[in-house]
Specification:
This is Reverse transcriptase zinc-binding domain-containing protein. It comes from Heracleum sosnowskyi. This protein has 157 residues and is mostly helical. The protein has 8 helices and no strands. The N terminus is likely disordered.
């Protein structure tokens, strides 16, 4: 017996299809897919899997590092998003339960071309944040929102 399809499951299916068609390198598509499934190695996820001593963000030491905190709520990421051409401002994202629900809300009424552009920009900005965060933690490279934005912009050249 086939499962009944809901608009929610159709939306998720459409999101997954769009992710694989964004104009970005495969590793960034996979990263976006992992982000939207909360399958990224944040302090909170590592702590829940008993792989880390603490769930607290290693950058700001203010909150538990969920995917949403790492991308939008950690104080250093806010200028990165403000420099981004998306109309995506971190305080406005507090209404969403997850990265996935925020993405679905933003692309639900858009044409495929606009949705792909939005997702590509979102993915590259998120990737730049992820790379800068990890460079700070593992290589002791200071966090610099302007350089993070510049790194992301280099993908569009």
């Amino acid at each position: 017996m086939p499962c009944a399809s809901t608009s929610s499951s159709n939306g998720h299916h459409n999101l997954w299809k769009l992710i694989w068609h964004i104009p970005a390198p495969p590793k960034i598509k996979m990263f976006l897919w992992r982000l939207s499934n909360n399958a990224i190695a944040t302090s909170l996820n590592l702590f829940n899997r008993k792989c880390a001593q603490s769930p607290v963000c290693q950058i700001c030491f203010q909150e538990r590092e969920s995917t949403e905190h790492m991308l939008f709520r950690c104080s250093w990421t806010i200028p990165v998003w403000f420099a981004c051409p998306l109309s995506l401002r971190p305080p406005s994202l507090d209404n969403y339960a997850s990265v996935q629900s925020a993405l679905m809300s933003k692309i639900s009424l858009a044409s495929k071309k606009i949705a792909l552009g939005f997702l590509a920009t979102f993915a590259l900005t998120s990737w730049a944040i992820w790379k800068a965060k990890n460079a700070n933690i593992f290589e002791d490279i200071p966090i610099n929102p302007a350089l993070t934005h510049k790194f992301k912009s280099s993908f569009f050249l």
